[in-house]
Amino acid sequence: MSADVVEELMFHCTDDRFFLEPVNSKQLLVIDRVNHDISLEENGGQIPFSASRKTVYGVVGILHLIAGPYLILITRRSKVGTLNKQAVWRLEETEFVPYARSTTFLTSEQKIYNDKYLSLAQQVLATPYFYFSYTYDLTHTLQRLYYTAEDFLQMALHERADVRFVWNQHLLRDLSVQPEMSAFCLPLVHGFISIRQCSINGEWFTWTLISRRSVYRAGTRMWIRGIDQEGAVANYVETEQIVEYRDFRSSFVQTRGSIPLHWSQEPNLVYKPTPVILNSNHEEAFTRHFESQVLCYGKQVAVNLIDQKGVEAKLCDAFKHLIETSNRQMVKDNVRYEYFDFHHECRKMRWDRLSILMERLRPDSESMGYFLFRDGVVLLEQEGVFRTNCIDCLDRTNVVQSMLARTQLQSALTRMGILGENQRVEDQYAFELLFKNVWADNADAVSTQYSGTGALKTDFTRTGKRTRLGLLKDGWNSAVRYVKNNFMDGDRQDGLDVFLGKYQVETGEGATRPCPLKETRDPRLLLLPAAMFFSLLMVFACLMLPSEYTSFTLLSLLFWAGMMVVATLSTFAQGRQLVNSPKLSFTHLTTPPRVG
Questions:
Q1: How many angstroms separate the Cα of 155 from the Cα of each of 138, 162, 184, 395?
Q2: C-alpha to C-alpha distance for 235 and 500, rounded to whole angstroms
Q3: Residues 182 and 248 in one domain
C-alpha cells in the first residue's frame, strides 16, 4: 500500500452518484448519493458524459448534517514550499457538496438549522490556516520521524499521523474505515507553516517554522481554558523550527498550552473577567498532562509568564504549588518550574529585561539541546522542551518562544558552518528581519485561530523594540478581541465542536427532536444594550447640538446621563445572558470528549 495521497482528482457529479477520478489512475472512488455507499471501482467508462466535472485537490472529509452528508472538497490550494524535498500546501478554498439534491424534505425550521450548521463548519475552514502534504507527514517532528521504523513510514498518512494534530480526523471516518480508501484520506494540520530559502555568508539553506494546534480541548479564547480530566490543555501548540543545509538537518521543538488547572474565564461583558479556579481534582489532571508530555518530549521546563499580582496571581500560585508538591516521581524528576513576571519586569517599555529570563534558561537550553543529524548520522538529540504559557498562551508566549528559537538557531547555524564562530544571527540583517517577521506572522496566525484577532506585542517581535504605534495597534486588537469574545465566539465554538465531532448532528433535529441551536434567550434582554447606546447618543446630542445651554438642556443632559448609567448597570448585571454562548456542548470546562 502506498503511503501517498492522490494529489489531483477530477470530480464528476450526477443526480445519483459522485465520482472522484484520480489523475493517471484506473480506479474511481464512487459515492452513492441515495444510500451513501462508498466504493472503489475500476474505471470502466461508467461516468456519464453528461456529468458535471471540476478539478479538485483532495477530500477534506464528509460532514453529516440535518439534510444528510456533505462531501467537502479542496478546490484551491497554494504551495508553501518544499520540506525534506516534498511539497507542502496551504488550503485556500473548499466546497461543500450535499448528497441530497434538494432540501424540500426538510421543514422550514430544519432548513434554517441546517444552513446554520453548514455556515458554522464553513467558518472553521475559512479560519487561517490549514495545511497538508500528499507525501510528507506534517504531524510529526523531524526527530520522531527519524526514529520510526521503515514499515511505519509505509503506512498510509492518516494511519501514522499524530492524532493530536489531525483536524479532519472525524470528517474522514467514513473513508478511513476502509483501508483501500487510504489514498483519498488527506490529513489537515491547523496552525502556521513558513518555509523560506535563506542565505547567510553566501550559503543557502531552508528555514522552516511549523506550529501544530492540537484538536484536544480545541476552542476559543474565553470559552476554553485550563485542562480536562484527561490532561489535555486549551490552546496547545507544538512549534518546530527546522533547518535544512546540504546534508545537515536540525529541529528544535517547543510547546505552549494553557495553565494545567481546572479554571474558567467565561465572558460576561466585563473587559477582563476574573479567572475562576474550579473545585475539581487538579492534581490528577495536572499529573496526566505532564506525564504525557514527558513521555512524548522528555524533560519539561515550565516557563510561566503570567502576572504575580491581580487576577492572574491565584493561577500563578496554584500552578507553582502543584509542581512543587507533586508526589509523582516522573513529574519530580523531569519538570522544572521557571517563573518570570513578564509585565512587571518589562514595564515602562523595558523589554531589554527579557535577557534576564534568557540567561536563566540558558543552562536548560544547553542541556536539553536540539535534534541534529548529518547524512543520516545523529549528532545531537533534543532531550526536553520548553513549555511556555501566559494567560492566553499567545502574546507573551510567542515573544519568549521566538527568543529561545533564535538561541538554538545560533548554535545550529554555527555548527553547520553557515555562521562563523564570532558571528551572531542578530547581525545578519536580511535574515534577522525575515526571522522576526515570520515569528510575528506565527503569533498572528495562532492568535487569530484562538482569540479572533492578531497577536499583541508583535511590534517587538518584528522590530526588537516596543513602540507607541505598537501600543495603539494592541489597543485596537484588544477592543476587537473584546467584541468577538463576547458577541461572536459562541458560534465559533459551536463550529469547532461540529467540525471536530465533539457534537454530532442528528437528522431529526428540528422535527422529531429539539435542535440545540434554537434561541432560548429572552429577546427583551436586547433592549438593555439598545437603551444604553441610545442614552449615550442622547447625551452627545445634548452636549453637541444646542447653540446655547438652557436649563431645559441641562435637565435633559442629566436625565439621559442618568438613563445611561441605569441602562449600563442593568446591561452588565445581565452580562452572562447577553454574551454569545456556545449551544452545542456543555462540558468545555471539565471534560470535553476526545477525538478519535
A1: 14, 13, 14, 38
A2: 15
A3: no
Cell triple for 367? 542541556
80 in the same domain as 214: no
Cβ contact 574:523 at 8 Å: no
Q: Cβ of 561: how many Cβ atoms within 10 Å?
A: 16
Residue 492 lies in a domain: no
pLDDT of residue 3: 67
80, 104: one domain:
yes
Contact 94, 75 (CB under 8 A): yes
Helix (H, G, I), strand (E, B) or coil at 441: helix
pLDDT digits (tens, 9 = 90+) for 431-449: 999 999 999 999 999 999 9
| Count of H-run helices and E-run strands, the chain | 18, 20
**Minimal CA–CA distance to 290: which of 321, 332, 262?**
332
Residue 160 lies in a domain: yes
Q: Tell me, what DSSP letter sits at residue 589?
A: T
Write out the three cell numbers for 306: 503570567
- 3-class state of residue 500 by DSSP: coil
Q: Which amino acid is at 550?
A: T
User: Are 94 and 72 within 8 A, CB to CB?
Assistant: yes
User: 105 vs 67, 217, 507, 509, CA distance in Å?
Assistant: 8, 36, 11, 13
C-alpha closest to that of 71 among 28, 22, 31, 120: 31
- Return the number of other C-beta atoms located less than 10 Å from residue 334's C-beta: 19
Domain shared by 201 and 156, yes or no? no
Residues 6+ apart with CB under 8 A from 353: 345, 346
Same domain, 318 and 363: yes
Q: What are phi and psi of 19, to 5 degrees?
A: -120, 125
Angstrom distance (rounded) from CA 97 to CA 31: 12
| Among 116, 97, 105, CA closest to 53 | 97
- Cβ pair 364, 336 in contact under 8 A: yes
Name the helix (H) or strand (E) containing 479: helix 468-487
Judge if 205 and 166 occupy the same domain.
Answer: no
The sign one gets for the Cα dihedral 553, 559, 560, 564 is positive
| Residue 593: predicted pLDDT | 37
**55 CB-near residues (< 8 Å, 6+ apart):** 8, 9, 10, 11
- Kindly state whether residue 593 falls inside one of the protein's structural domains: no
* Range 569-575, long-range pairs (CB < 8 A, 24+ positions): 570/528, 570/531, 571/269, 571/528, 571/529, 571/532, 572/268, 572/269, 572/270, 574/525, 574/528, 575/267, 575/268, 575/269, 575/270
Q: Which domain holds residue 570?
A: 523-578
Residue at a domain's end among 187, 202, 221? 187
Residue 330 sits in the same domain as residue 434: yes
Are 372 and 355 in contact, with CB atoms under 8 Å apart? no
Q: Which residues of the chain have pLDDT under 50?
A: 1, 587-596
- Number of domains within the chain: 3
Tell me, yes or no, whether 170 and 251 share the same domain.
no
313 membership: H or E segment, kind and range: helix 313-325
State pTM to two decimals: 0.93
Q: Where are the beta strands (DSSP E) in 327-426?
A: 335-339, 371-374, 377-380, 384-389
pLDDT of residue 118: 98
